[in-house]
Amino acid sequence: MNFSIEAFEALPYETQLAEARGYIDAVLENIRGQGREPYRGEYANLFDAMACFAEASFAIAIDFAARANHIGPGNQMRTPGLSPEPDYSVPVSEVWARAQQTLAENGPDDKQSS
Fold first, then answer.
1. pTM
2. Residue 87 vs residues 43, 52, 67, 75, 80: alpha-carbon distances, Å
3. Are 31 and 44 in contact (CB under 8 A)?
4. Is the C or the N end of the chain the one with fewer CB within 10 Å?
5. What is the 3-state secondary structure (H, E, C) of 58-91?
6. Per-residue pLDDT reduced to its tens digit, 14-41
7. How far is CA 102 from the centre of its chain?
8. Termini Cα distance of the chain
9. How far apart are CA 86 and CA 106, in angstroms?
10. Is 89 exposed, middle or buried (0-12, 13-18, 19+ CB in 10 A)?
11. Could you give the CA distance from residue 101 to residue 107 in angstroms, rounded to a whole number?
């Protein structure tokens, strides 16, 4: 995904949400389509993407998801992220479900609503 952060953040909240959710879902589907779980480096970047998504930081979430998508097969290295080292024993699908639930429970704040 190629976008300007400023232009993206000017979009309505609902559009940003849909774009971020769709991009993360696409990265996960790409990994599942290969019949595997995320490699360590992919997982760490997806973990950061999902943490940003839960906080409604959608542009940053897409950036981390893009890193996961392009990190390369088998890469175990972690791109420096925003969070501490994730618990790799938790399935990425569970992390994603929690992130979406957290966002739904907290909702947008006033500055992000359109």
1. 0.85
2. 10, 17, 19, 17, 16
3. no
4. C
5. HHHHHHHHHHHHHCCCCCCCCCCCCCCCCCCCCC
6. 999 999 999 999 999 999 999 999 998 8
7. 13
8. 23
9. 22
10. exposed
11. 10
